[in-house]
Design goal:
The protein is mainly alpha-helical. It has seven helices and two strands, in the order αβααβαααα. Strands 1-2 form a two-stranded antiparallel ribbon. The mean pLDDT is about 80.
């Protein structure tokens, strides 16, 4: 074979190799560009509720359906390979403006959920408190009431308690006035620490 015939074939082979190398690089650049393009596929404001126990793929698919993400698969790839696959938090999220995929993911990783102001007036019964919480849209009444009745917080005081409505003189929800003794009185170690604080560069109380 003559040298003249080898040169066109060599040039063609080199061109194909360069083209094949450029395809992944081009795809990577396009993916990066798309990740950082603000996207908004909804009108007005969008509230998305992420339920406890949902996996990352489910959450991202939900965000895509709701118009928050443009591409759930691309977001999943960035979450895994770009961020190390951190967990996303359950809760209710509010989206109002166009946002990039990294910004949306950071919001869910941080758990930047909707805040609801709620004041429970002292003296309300457990049922009234649970109803007030449910009326603010923070859960179902029966679930909230069951959580409020959970005796786990008072297990040390009354291991046999079936709920928080324990019949104790210290339960001021049942017995008006002051309890018969001090509540949360400090021990000797706490008193000594307050009287002779440690020589440290920070403040504490």
């Amino acid at each position: 074979m003559s040298p003249r015939r080898k040169k066109p074939r060599f040039a063609l082979g080199l061109g194909l190799l360069l083209l094949l190398a450029a395809v992944p690089a081009g795809a990577a650049l396009w993916s990066w560009w798309r990740l950082n393009q603000p996207y908004r596929g909804f009108a007005g404001e969008k509230t998305v509720a992420v339920a406890t126990g949902m996996g990352a793929a489910e959450i991202l698919a939900l965000l895509e359906r709701e118009g928050v993400l443009a591409d759930a698969r691309l977001a999943r790839a960035y979450l895994v390979f770009g961020l190390g696959d951190p967990p996303m938090q359950a809760g209710e999220y509010l989206f109002a403006e166009a946002a990039t995929t990294p910004a949306v993911l950071r919001k869910l990783i941080k758990g930047d959920v909707v805040s609801v102001r709620l004041t429970l007036i002292e003296g309300l019964t457990l049922e009234e408190s649970a109803r007030a919480v449910a009326e603010r849209g923070l859960g179902r009444y029966d679930e909230i009431a069951a959580a409020m009745r959970d005796p786990a917080p008072i297990a040390d005081l009354d291991p046999e308690a079936g709920d928080l409505e324990m019949d104790s003189p210290y339960n001021t929800y049942r017995h008006a006035g002051l309890p018969p003794g001090p509540i949360c009185s400090p021990g000797l170690a706490s008193l000594l620490a307050a009287a002779r604080p440690a020589d440290v560069p920070y403040l504490y109380f």
